[in-house]
Amino acid sequence: MVKVRERKETGKLYFDFFYKGRRCREYSSLPNTPANRRKMEKVAKKMDAEMTLGTFAYREYFPQSRRLKEFEALERAPEAEAEAEASEPESDVPLFRDFAEQWLQENEVLWRFKTLESNRSALRRHLIPQFGDWKVSDISKADVLAFRSTLAKVPGRKGNATLSPKTINHTLGVLSMVLAEAADRFQFTFPLQNLKRLKQPKREIQPFSWDEVQRILEHVRPDYRNYFVVRFFTGLRTGEVHGLKWRHVDFDNGLILVRETYNRGRTEYTKTDGSQRDVMMSSVVADALRAQREATGRSDYVFHTANGQPLDTKNVAERVWYPLLRHLGLALRQPYQCRHTAATLWLAAGENPEWIARQLGHTNTEMLFRVYSRYVPNLTRQDGSAMDRLLRARFHGETDNEGKEVRDEG
């Protein structure tokens, strides 16, 4: 299929297509405007039709192309081409770089933006430099194992000595998906059957204690206090908080409707179907959101920048979060630990793990017990009331029905 794309460096349009089993990019001098795009898409449809009928002639469309002689030779000698194909059955098997780009284009509509960027990065940083000039059918398991050993020696990012097992596993996972599709299309044996993943060390969570949460909320910038109340006491993921819109805050029923997430400048569908959920608001969270509505209630997003855009994760971390932790003398931890803190506070309050799992967007309690096993007390309650009573006691000094101050039993 012939596609019309924009060359980012110049803003000009070009044709992107496969012909005779080879990847072709033919550039135009037309800037990317709606009119020019329509004009080129009309030509692209005609090219598609002629390729399907076998009447396509490269010279008619690209008389100045540097690849003209290459394709004219193939077009003038179909018999010779057929003989070459018969004697060399893999002649139409594409190079890895060409097929990987095609695979990426074909699947981009299936993935969330973050997944697309992650897969594209694995291809362009590691896989194409290694296997780009190989035919997809020539890549063996031994080649991949040797490549994995090389990857394990590549310097990592953020000060890490080498790439993490997680990054290496993801890179080989992308390679496996590309080769599996290629093997199916070009009828060769998939080489990575039963390839074992590297063992990934278990990550220890670092939730904040109740005293640390109080200190953070007491000293954080006033314009971010409501934001961190929501983060600490709802378990929302970073993108879910940043993508939260006022139309998804149901004060009447005390619910936050998690329907979207914001990541890398895009609002999109949540991480998984299970992440689509209704999170119960404690009274403290409801009070924080009502106060926040006074500041941002006329905008779409609950928490946003001065120009009305969702908060930027890196900006919040570098300008608000880490400076605050340093000021308080607390160990530096990612803002995502707020989610872990919510889970451990719910567990300490004695909430039912099934209810907690639903609040966090887990489909079952397996992950809850695996990640938070040392925080799980005896099960005594069924809903969010225990946490709500704990928060009321901490924030407002309220007492229970017998006149005793509500205490944390965890």
CATH topology of the largest domain: hpI Integrase, Chain A
Number of strands: 8
Low-confidence runs (pLDDT<50, min 5 residues)? 84-90, 402-410
Helicity range of the residues? Answer: 40-55%
Cα gyration radius (Å): 28 Å
β-sheet strand percentage? 5-15%
Question: What is the architecture of the largest domain at the second tier of CATH?
Answer: Orthogonal Bundle
Spatial gap, N to C terminus: 61 Å
Biggest sheet, open or closed, and with what strands and sense?
Answer: 3 strands, antiparallel
Question: Which structural class matches the secondary elements?
Answer: mainly alpha
Number of helices: 17
Number of structural units classed as domains: 3
Find the CATH superfamily of the largest domain: Intergrase catalytic core
Question: What features would you describe in this structure?
Answer:
It is elongated, with a radius of gyration of 28 Å. The strands form 3 sheets. The protein has a 3-stranded antiparallel β-sheet with strand order 1-2-3, covered by helices on one side. A 3-stranded antiparallel β-sheet has the order 4-5-8. It has a two-stranded antiparallel ribbon with strand order 6-7. It has 17 helices and 8 strands. β2 (12-19) and β3 form a beta hairpin. It has 410 residues and is mainly alpha-helical. The longest helix is centred in the middle third of the chain and has 22 residues, at 165-186. The protein is 50% helix and 10% strand. It has helices spanning 34-53, 58-61, 68-76, 78-87, 96-107, 113-131, 141-151, 165-186, 210-219, 222-234, 238-242, 283-296, 313-328, 337-348, 353-360, 366-372, 385-396; strands spanning 3-7, 12-19, 22-31, 249-250, 255-258, 260-263, 266-269, 277-280. Residues 84-90 and 402-410 have low confidence and may be disordered. The chain has 3 domains: 3-87, no CATH class; 96-186, DNA polymerase, domain 1 (Orthogonal Bundle); 210-396, Intergrase catalytic core (hpI Integrase, Chain A), CATH 1.10.443.10.
